[in-house]
Design a protein that fits this description.
Layout: E1 9-14, H1 17-25, E2 34-37, H2 42-49, E3 76-79, H3 81-84, H4 94-100, E4 105-107, H5 111-128, E5 132-134, E6 139-143, H6 156-170, E7 174-179, H7 182-188, E8 197-199, H8 205-209, H9 222-230, H10 236-241, H11 244-263, E9 279-290, H12 296-317, E10 319-330, E11 335-346, H13 349-361, E12 369-377, E13 380-381, H14 382-390
Parallel strand pairs: 2-4, 7-8
Antiparallel strand pairs: 1-6, 1-7, 2-3, 5-6, 9-12, 10-11, 10-12, 10-13
Helix pairs in contact: 5-6, 5-14, 12-13
The chain binds thymidine-5'-triphosphate and magnesium ion (MG) (2 copies).
Length: about 425
Amino acid sequence: MTDLPLRRIAHLDMDAFYASVELLRYPQLKGLPVVIGGGRRKADEDLMLGDTSRALHEIPVAEFPLLRDYTGRGVITTATYAARQFGVGSAMGLMKAAQLCPQAVLLPVDFAQYRHYSQRFKAIITDIAPVMENRGVDEVYIDFTEVPGGQREGGRVLARLIQKAIFEDTGLTCSVGVAPNKLLAKMASEFNKPKGISVVMDEDLQSAIWPLACRKINGIGPKADARLQALGIHTIGQLAAAEPALLAQHFGPRTSAWLHAAAHGRDNSAVHTSSEPVSMSRETTFDRDLHAVRDRAALGAVFTRLCEQVAADLQRKGYMGRTIGVKLRFADFRIATRDHTIGAYTDQATTIRQAAGQALKRAPLDQRLRLLGVRVGGLLPAAEAVALAAGTRTAGSAATQDEHNSDAAQQAPLFSDI
Ligand code: TTP
Ligand code: MG
Ligand code: MG
C-alpha cells in the first residue's frame, strides 16, 4: 500500500458546442436538427432584424432559414445531436448535408459568442480544480489528482460536480472522461457523449481501449492510420501486439516507441496550465505612505497613470476586458481588492479610470496607502471583443455588476473623484 494519490486526469469536452450555444438564444429550436455553418446571410439578417419588438426566443420556428435553401461552398462546423441522426456532422459541405437533412435549421457561425461561453465554462472549472490545460474552444484537461474529492469513485464525483456547476451557470452540457493520463482521458470523454462521464482505470485497458480503432488515439491522424491499416493493424489492441521492430521499420524509432506506449495506455505528459492572460495589471509602491484625502491630488495622478499604463498594455497586446479592479496595500500591509464589471469590453484609459474609481469607492480608505494597483480582467482578444460588441442582440448578455463588497463610500472627496 502507498499513500500516494492515484494520478487522475480528466478530459472535458462540451457537447455540440457551437450548436448548444446557439440554442441558448433560440431555445425554441431544442430537439430539432440544427446545423451551424457559413457566414451571416441575408436570411439571417432578416431573421434578426425582422421584428425587433420580439425577443429572439419568440421568433417562430417556421421563420428560421433551412439547410435546403442554402447555396454555396460553406461547411458544417457542428450539428445538434438531433441532426447527427441524419448523418450530418462537422466538416461536411452544407449542400451535401442538405441532401441528407433538408429540414435542418441552418444558423451562421458567431465565434465571438462561442469564445465568451468558452471563457465562462473554463473559469468555472478553474474555480473548482485549478490545474487546467486549455485544448481549444470547447475542451480542457484537468488534473483531479490533488483536488479534494478528486479520487472519489475514480473521479466520477468531481466530474459530476463540474458538469453540474457548468450547467447551472451556462445551461450548457459537457462530457468528461477520467483516466490515469491525458491520452486515455481524451478517449474516455467520447464514450458516453452527450452528458456522459466515463471513468477508466489501468485495469480497463484491455476491455475499454483495445477494441477501439487506432484513430481514437490523439496523435494518430489519417496518414498514420492508413499506414497502420496497410500493415493489418486496425485496433489499438492490434497495435499493442505489433512487433516493435515492424513498427520501427515503418515509422522510425521515435514514433514507433510512442505508438507502442500509447497502445499500452502509457502517457506521462503533464497538464499544462494555460498561458492565455486572464488579466493585466499595473501597480506602484509609494516612496512614503499616502493618505486618501490629504494626498488626493498626488494619488489621483498616480491612479490615472496606472489606468493609462494598463490601457497601453492591453492595446499593445491586443486584449480588452470588462472587469476593472483596484488593489490597495495599507501602511500595516493589509491588502484590499475591489472589482467593478462594466457592460462593454474596453481597452481605453478613461473607461478604465471611471470603472476603477467606482471600485475604489467601495474600498476602505481609512489608513495610509503603501501601494495602489489597477487590474483589468475578463479578457478577450480585442478582435473578438469588438465582434461581440458589433454582434447581434444576444440573450442574457446585459451588463452585470459584480459587487464584491458594498462598503459605504467615504464622505470626504477621494482621489477617485478627481
Ligand atoms: P468538437 O468538440 O469536436 O465537436 P462538438 O462540441 O460540436 O460536438 P461533440 O459533442 O461531439 O463534442 O468541436 C468543438 C467545436 O469546434 C464545434 O462545436 C464546432 C467547432 N468545429 C469546427 O468548426 N470544425 C470542425 O471540423 C470541428 C470538428 C469542430
Ligand atoms: Mg465538443
Ligand atoms: Mg472538442
